[in-house]
């Protein structure tokens, strides 16, 4: 049977007094742990995905086996990888961070490859004609153009990690997921308050992280805003011209005839 989130008889769904007492204790500690376990794997995954994606974009035959390997890793259940890593790293942050970093590769590697492939050939040729070497062309031309595609993958990987971290609570390391476990194992029946607090904080954390990454993308791609502004101005001018062309021509007065 599927468990239903409901407070025991006579118990309110949310106990605000418990939240007030534990706000600077269990809630703050769980939130801090969740932040570390969520963003560290994304940074590690990005550091790995960038050179791997560059290699796959440079040598196209390398991309299919790399993509297959990362897809297979993503298909492995998270709790299974956590249990496997417990044998090597024990009940430490590494047990959760390494598997989650491997999961991010299935999103970040294709994002790097697709981003680099989105760079038009004539742009590369123009950079070569200007005397740009491979490294300078990559840093000054190709990566900036690939930023929107790369950031889209980074946003997906970050939000997915924020959700997956909670699974680590099943082995005792799960950030806000531990509040859920605490609520379900509460003496005398389920205690819904920590469960609801964990769910709300995870959702807010995902929304805030996605918003921050979106703002970073806007800062890194100022030309997109300028391009949208020019397109909007051109569209307004075209609409005004169409309206003027479709306006009825006033009839000529009889005196002028």
Supply the number of helical segments: 9
How do the helices and strands follow one another from N- to C-terminus?
HHHHHHHHH
Percentage of residues in helical conformation: over 70%
Stretches with pLDDT under 50, minimum 5 residues: none
Strand content: under 5%
The beta-strand count equals 0
- pLDDT average, as an integer? 81
Shape: elongated
Cα end-to-end separation: 89 Å
> SS-based structural class?
mainly alpha
Backbone CA Rg? 27 Å
Largest sheet: none
Write the layout of secondary structure elements.
Blueprint: H1 16-58, H2 63-75, H3 78-89, H4 93-117, H5 121-129, H6 134-164, H7 177-184, H8 192-220, H9 222-246
Helix pairs in contact: 1-4, 1-6, 1-8, 2-4, 3-4, 4-6, 5-6, 6-8, 7-8
Structure description:
- This protein has helices spanning 16-58, 63-75, 78-89, 93-117, 121-129, 134-164, 177-184, 192-220, 222-246.
- It is mainly alpha-helical.
- α7 (177-184) runs antiparallel to α8 (192-220).
- The longest helix is centred in the first third of the chain and has 43 residues, at 16-58.
- The protein is elongated.
- The N and C termini lie far apart (89 Å).
- The mean pLDDT is 81.
């Amino acid at each position: 049977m599927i468990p239903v989130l409901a407070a025991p008889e006579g118990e309110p769904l949310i106990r605000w007094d418990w939240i007030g007492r534990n706000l600077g204790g269990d809630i703050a500690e769980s939130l801090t742990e969740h932040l570390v376990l969520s963003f560290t794997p994304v940074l590690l995954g990005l550091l790995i995905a960038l050179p791997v994606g560059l290699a796959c974009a440079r040598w196209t035959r390398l991309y299919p086996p790399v993509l297959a390997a990362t897809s297979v890793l993503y298909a492995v259940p998270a709790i299974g990888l956590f249990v496997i890593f417990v044998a090597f790293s024990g009940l430490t942050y590494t047990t959760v961070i390494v598997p989650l970093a491997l999961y991010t590769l299935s999103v970040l590697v294709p994002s790097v490859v697709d981003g680099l492939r989105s760079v038009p050939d004539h742009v590369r040729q123009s950079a070569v004609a200007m005397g740009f070497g491979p490294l300078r062309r990559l840093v000054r031309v190709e990566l900036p153009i690939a930023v929107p595609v790369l950031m889209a993958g980074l946003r997906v990987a970050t939000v997915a990690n924020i959700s997956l971290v909670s699974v680590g609570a099943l082995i005792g390391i799960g950030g806000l997921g531990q509040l859920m476990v605490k609520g379900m194992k509460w003496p005398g029946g389920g205690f819904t308050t920590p469960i609801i607090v964990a769910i709300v904080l995870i959702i807010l954390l995902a929304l805030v992280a996605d918003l921050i990454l979106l703002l970073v993308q806007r800062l890194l791609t100022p030309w997109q805003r300028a391009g949208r502004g020019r397109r909007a101005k051109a569209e307004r001018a075209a609409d005004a011209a169409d309206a003027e062309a479709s306006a009825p021509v006033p009839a000529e007065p009889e005196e002028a005839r």
